[in-house]
Amino acid sequence: QSGIKDSISSILHISEGSLPVRYLGVPLIMSKLSRMDCLVLVDKIMRKTNSWQSKFLSFGGRLLILSSIFSIQVFWCSIFILPASMIKECERLIRSFLWYGIGNNKKGGKVAWHKVCIPKDEGGLGIMSLRTRGESFWSILVRGNCSWSWRRILRTRHILTQYLIYDVNEGDRLSLWFDPWLLGESIKDKYGLRVIQDLGNPSHARVSSVLRDGRWVWPTTSWELLEISNISSHIPLQTGSDSIHWMRRGLRFSCHEAWKAICTGFPKVNWAGLVWFPFSIPKHCFCVWLTFNNAHWTLRRLRGIGVMSSCRCVFDCREDELINHLFFACKFTADV
Fold this sequence. Notes:
By secondary structure, the protein is mainly alpha-helical. It is 42% helix and 5% strand. It contains 17 helices and six strands. The strands form three sheets. The chain has a two-stranded antiparallel sheet. It has a two-stranded antiparallel sheet with strand order 3-6. A two-stranded antiparallel sheet has the order 4-5. Helix 2 runs antiparallel to helix 3, helix 3 runs antiparallel to helix 4 and helix 3 packs across helix 14. The N and C termini lie far apart (81 Å). This is Zf-RVT domain-containing protein. Keywords: Membrane, Transmembrane, Transmembrane helix. It comes from Cephalotus follicularis (Albany pitcher plant). Pfam families: zf-RVT.
């Protein structure tokens, strides 16, 4: 075999290599991704966040740069499941860049990171958490001989299922037992495996096996089948293939819609439209966002953490420097 490899290498002028190697910018390996394998990703983020141009950007400019940084991480997540330690390290670099303009600062930010990573209409910056970006949603049955990566991905399928709507038409695509077409639940989850034995249909049966000429045909040999018959009689049937919708009928799936569904948990704020609107200036938007979140480092706030000894307004207003004072009561800023 060694001679054959040498002959092929000589003919094609290709040297023999060994794993891991880099392919399309990512490591090509046969085992689970380790922290050492991800150092290339950290290096790319460091180069982006520590460039001399980035240090002179405003908060709004840094927010725009983050979109290009996220694209690198999305590319990796589309191929690998990143280690938790690496996700934590990448988030630290991005968090530091947003608040300080450099990617290697261990200080905290003006607003808690979990609040930054929520949609804009809920009071955040619309930055997707790297942990959320790493989530993958699939609805494939787990096989015993599948790889560790598939098993990890399929553990999160329950998150996706709750946002899907199953429409039964001709019953040609949906599993009779395992798809949640019965008012959002699968027959197997609702009634257990016993009902499969009662009906006698195989485990791979489709919904079409209990349809005749556009009507439901269920035997009533047990109370479970009788109840299923009553529930399914209220499900309208139409011509055409079965369909699955995202969250509501007619809405197509997108990563952005999935992220909004997963991150929902905060009430919508009534000031989002005042901050984020078409043709707005990013620097001004970020400043107003900080104002609504009471996150400016005023003298009163700095005195509270022991940085300043006085909190009097520097414009000799004889009042404490607070956000309300700076923006609405200070005579100097009012003239400006």
